[in-house]
Amino acid sequence: MMGPFMSAEELVVTLAPVAVYWVYAGIYELLLASTTVLDKYRLHSRRDQETKNIASRKDVVRGVLLQQAIQVAISVAVLNLEGHGAAAAANADGLAAPPFLVTAARFGVAMLVHDAWQYFMHRLMHSVPYMYRRFHSWHHRVAAPYAYAAQYGHPVDGVLTDTLSGAAAYLASGMSPRAAAAFFVFATVKGVDDHCGVAAPWNPFQAAFRNNSAYHDVHHQRGGGRCNFSQPFFVVWDRLLGTHAPYALRHRDGGGLEVKAFIKDRQMQ
């Protein structure tokens, strides 16, 4: 039986995104390591990932686990401060769930708030030299992204950009913990997909969203740090504020795909 500190729903909100992160990223890693089914859609060769990435895979795993531990702690604090602690959950037993359209609207609000926070904080990290050098540059140590590096970065960057954007989305939308669990799982899967290094046309996330692995790959390229800040859902802020860079997917010599970005009518090398 759950103790008074955390309800079952709170446990799902805090731990489900962490579990889904490793499961979904693990599927990508398994497919890429054990099969050739995704090889023709790879944005970076295995050699690129070995030679272009400064952070080792061990460092990435340690960094992601640290970020997720901090994320869980802050999630628990926000849930309890908002009044969704175990006692509040117990008092809410028997109350009808909000109508589907209300839940869907709150989900949409959460997506918009999450995107706005991440865009402006992400751009700030690139605009202030100290913040980039001290914090955000860690994430760009992975120049050839892969799935489980999605949340790799300096803990301060992780809190300011990722964790607080989730807290803001939750508080602004008024979602229930159950709906929040679904939202954070969705956002986690989308973030992993955006860093997977694979541009498969049949992938529903990449087909439904213009902000996808190829779009975000532009940002990780050399010279891409001044464009395509939007993440993880829409590209609206990039378009509105002039930081959107179009790109073309082309077949790479030796197999796979490569992203060629165009910034101010000039192809980025």
From TrEMBL:
Q: Which GO MF terms are attached to this record? A: aldehyde oxygenase (deformylating) activity; iron ion binding; oxidoreductase activity
Where does it live in the cell? Answer: Endoplasmic reticulum membrane
Q: One Pfam family, please name it.
A: FA_hydroxylase
Give the bilayer topology. Answer: Multi-pass membrane protein
**Listed InterPro entries:** Fatty_acid_hydroxylase, Sterol_Desaturase_Related
List the transmembrane segments: 20-38
Top EC group = lyase
EC number, as in UniProt: 4.1.99.5
User: What GO CC terms are in its UniProt record?
Assistant: endoplasmic reticulum membrane
The Fatty acid hydroxylase domain covers which part of the protein?
109-243
Classify the source by domain of life: Eukaryota
Which UniProt keywords are listed?
Endoplasmic reticulum, Lyase, Membrane, NADP, Transmembrane, Transmembrane helix
User: Catalytic activity, per the record?
Assistant: a long-chain fatty aldehyde + 2 NADPH + O2 + H(+) = a long-chain alkane + formate + 2 NADP(+) + H2O
Query: Tell me, which GO biological process terms does this entry list?
Result: lipid biosynthetic process
Family from the record: Belongs to the sterol desaturase family.
User: What name is this protein filed under?
Assistant: aldehyde oxygenase (deformylating)
Organism the protein comes from: Miscanthus lutarioriparius
